[in-house]
């Protein structure tokens, strides 16, 4: 992100951020972040890759804090705003964060915990003013960010990206999607994942463009801002496009026509994080006049494959490898496959993360001996375009664009006093992509499922909680005694 800070010098007067009805230039943003970096340094010369966790609302403050951490030499660890305390503490403990920065509304949630763990806490708005410090030199190969991703293990893993990784992820998108400083985008995504952090905010900042923020997803608010006629780039997950379509359909015809006219003037609309259903793509085309540009990415690699900005965007396909990203398909022995066969996607390039935090075993396991990252996603190439066919693991669920581990939910469910065993699976769903459901073998069939759900939400995020439960006597298993998740899915149909 060091190039980012160099780029900024050329567009200091441009409008960088609009949030909470205020507009900020790059000059203001940079100077506020440098001031804050001094506070973060707290007399030290360099944070030397110390982890700084932050729970900050989307907007000016978020970017200011993120840039301050980077300029002070720290590793930025953004926390999910909707996570309950145990999930937040998991990340804080795992990263061994030395500093925690929060928007005022999260102070009460985290205060006790930071005191108990002896972590310095900065509450925005209550920070002391200190003189501007000299900021350290940061090499590109230093670690910049840790994002937590759920996977085939029961605990989320910290994905460590360097400044060089992030720069590669951003620059390929800026070039391929032709970002310019006259672009104006709207950030509606959570900011503890690559989609919001890299594709939306960082590409905007790299280009000297404008990013407008809303505090949380709201179809009404998104359309209200679209109507102002400034926004020309929009990115979201399929569930959001689904929700926007439903909302648009509920509007009077005059309002629908007005919105369609506004959206037709956009330069680019992108969709990703989960498979875009062809029906959603087609409906969105009617509503907005745009053929959504679908792309494929992952926390560990940023974006790898994208439909073209200019050229054919094919429904049901994710396109071609982005410049600078090497992609290949392999069989289960990690050998190249024959043309026309499907295989696991492997990725190599400067965009690929360096390691899972504090987890060398997982790092070794997820790379081939010659350095290709194993995505676990299966694809096929048809007429030159990649099509995603599915995933290697049934234990990974994609719901609302979030990657969710069935194993993580099962582990928590099994700690409930009335549950003997369980199996969590994802069912195909038009709106959410997959809907999380759980089959339970219980000690007492009078178990109150509403209470169970409330209890679960005290430990894991609401978006990870099952939408449906089914009480069964026994889980379906194969001859080896392993639960057959495809059979579990059938029980719900
Ligand atoms: C929320 N709800 C859900 C989910 N999320 N139900 C099922 N599945 C979910 N995933 C439920 C809540 O529990 C709540 O239920 C109700 O929906 C409303 O909750 P709320 O949080 O208000 O939902 P929302 O605001 O309507 O959010 C929907 C959303 C959100 C905007 C689509 O899920 C979202 O922001 N998704 C984007 C995630 C994302 O950025 N993924 C990128 C990671 P109740 O009322 O019962 O409490 S992937 C990535 O970064 C890679 C690199 C990539 O390729 O991009
Ligand atoms: P995450 O780890 O949250 O970054 O999620 C990455 C995963 O999202 C990938 O491994 C894919 O399974 C899925 N994904 C991202 N983009 C797409 C897409 N366009 N189509 C299908 N799956 C996608």
Give the integer mean of the pLDDT values: 96
Could you state the CATH homologous superfamily of the domain at 397-491? ANL, C-terminal domain
Oligomer: single chain
The first-level CATH class of the domain at 397-491 is given as: Alpha Beta
Distance between the termini: 48 Å
Q: In what order do the strands lie side by side in the largest sheet? A: 2-1-10-9-11-12-13-14-15
Secondary-structure blueprint:
Layout: H1 2-8, E1 15-19, E2 22-25, H2 26-41, E3 51-55, H3 60-71, E4 75-78, H4 85-95, E5 99-102, H5 107-116, E6 120-123, E7 143-149, E8 157-162, H6 163-176, E9 184-187, H7 194-207, E10 210-213, H8 219-226, E11 233-236, H9 238-249, H10 253-264, E12 268-271, H11 278-288, E13 293-298, E14 302-306, E15 320-321, E16 326-330, E17 343-348, E18 355-356, H12 360-366, E19 373-382, E20 385-391, E21 396-399, E22 402-405, H13 406-414, E23 419-429, E24 433-442, H14 449-456, E25 468-471, H15 485-491
Parallel strand pairs: 1-10, 3-4, 3-5, 5-6, 9-10, 9-11, 11-12, 12-13, 24-25
Antiparallel strand pairs: 1-2, 7-8, 8-18, 13-14, 14-15, 16-17, 17-19, 19-20, 21-22, 23-24
Helix pairs in contact: 2-3, 6-7, 9-11
The structure holds methylmalonyl-coenzyme A (MCA) and adenosine monophosphate.
Describe this protein's structure:
Helix content is about 30%, strand content about 25%. It has a domain at about 395-490: 2-Layer Sandwich (GMP Synthetase, Chain A, domain 3), CATH 3.30.300.30. The chain is α/β, with parallel strands linked by helices and about 500 residues long. Strands 2-1-10-9-11-12-13-14-15 form a nine-stranded mixed beta sheet. It is globular. It has helices at about 1-10, 25-40, 60-70, 85-95, 105-115, 165-175, 195-205, 220-225, 240-250, 255-265, 280-290, 360-365, 405-415, 450-455, 485-490; strands spanning about 15-20, 20-25, 50-55, 75-80, 100, 120-125, 145-150, 155-160, 185, 210-215, 235, 270, 295-300, 300-305, 320, 325-330, 345-350, 355, 375-380, 385-390, 395-400, 400-405, 420-430, 435-440, 470. Strand 9, helix 7 (about 195-205) and strand 10 form a beta-alpha-beta unit. Helix 6 packs across helix 7 (about 195-205) and helix 9 (about 240-250) crosses helix 11 (about 280-290). It starts with a helix and ends with a helix. Bound molecules: methylmalonyl-coenzyme A and adenosine monophosphate.
């Amino acid at each position: 992100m060091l190039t980012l800070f160099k780029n900024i010098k050329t567009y200091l007067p441009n409008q960088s951020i609009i949030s909470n009805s205020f507009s900020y230039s790059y000059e203001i943003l940079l100077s506020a972040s440098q001031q804050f970096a001094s506070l973060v340094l707290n007399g030290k010369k360099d944070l030397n890759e110390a982890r700084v966790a932050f729970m900050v609302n989307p907007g000016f403050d978020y970017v200011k804090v993120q840039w301050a951490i980077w300029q002070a030499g720290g590793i930025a660890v953004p926390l999910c705003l909707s996570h309950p305390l145990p999930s937040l503490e998991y990340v804080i403990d795992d990263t061994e964060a030395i500093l925690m920065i929060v928007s005022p509304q999260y102070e009460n949630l985290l205060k006790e915990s930071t005191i108990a763990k002896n972590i310095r806490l900065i509450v925005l708005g209550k920070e002391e003013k200190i003189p501007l410090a000299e900021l350290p030199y940061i090499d590109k190969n230093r670690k910049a960010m840790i994002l937590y991703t759920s996977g085939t293990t029961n605990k989320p893993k910290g994905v460590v990206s360097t400044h060089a990784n992030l720069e590669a992820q951003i620059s390929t998108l800026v070039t391929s999607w032709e970002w310019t400083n006259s672009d104006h985008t709207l950030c509606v995504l959570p900011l503890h994942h690559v989609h919001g952090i890299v594709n939306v905010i960082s590409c905007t900042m790299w280009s000297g463009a404008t990013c407008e923020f809303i505090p949380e997803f709201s179809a009404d608010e998104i359309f209200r801002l679209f109507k102002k006629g400034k926004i020309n780039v929009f990115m979201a997950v399929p569930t959001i496009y689904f929700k926007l379509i439903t909302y648009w359909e509920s509007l009077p015809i005059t309002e629908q026509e007005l919105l369609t006219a506004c959206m037709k003037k956009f330069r680019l609309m992108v969709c990703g994080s989960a498979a875009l259903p062809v029906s959603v793509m087609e409906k969105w085309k009617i509503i907005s006049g745009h053929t959504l540009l679908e792309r494929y990415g992952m926390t560990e690699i940023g974006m790898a494959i994208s439909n073209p900005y200019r050229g054919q965007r094919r429904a049901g396909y994710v396109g071609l490898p982005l410049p600078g990203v090497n992609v290949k398909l392999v069989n289960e022995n990690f050998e190249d496959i024959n043309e026309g066969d499907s295989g696991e996607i492997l990725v190599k390039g400067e965009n690929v993360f360096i390691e899972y935090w504090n987890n060398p075993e997982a790092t070794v396991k997820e790379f081939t001996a010659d350095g290709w990252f194993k995505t676990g996603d299966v694809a096929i190439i048809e007429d030159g375009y990649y099509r995603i066919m599915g995933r290697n693991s049934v234990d990974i669920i994609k719901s609302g664009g979030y990657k969710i581990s069935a194993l993580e939910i099962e582990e928590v469910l099994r700690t409930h006093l009335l549950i003997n065993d369980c199996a969590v699976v994802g069912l195909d769903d038009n709106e959410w992509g997959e809907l999380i459901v759980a089959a339970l073998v219980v000690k007492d069939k009078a178990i109150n499922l509403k209470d169970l759900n409330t209890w679960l939400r005290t430990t894991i995020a609401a978006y990870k909680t099952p939408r449906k439960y089914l009480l069964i006597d026994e889980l379906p298993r194969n001859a080896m005694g392993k639960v057959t998740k495809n059979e579990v899915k059938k029980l719900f149909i």
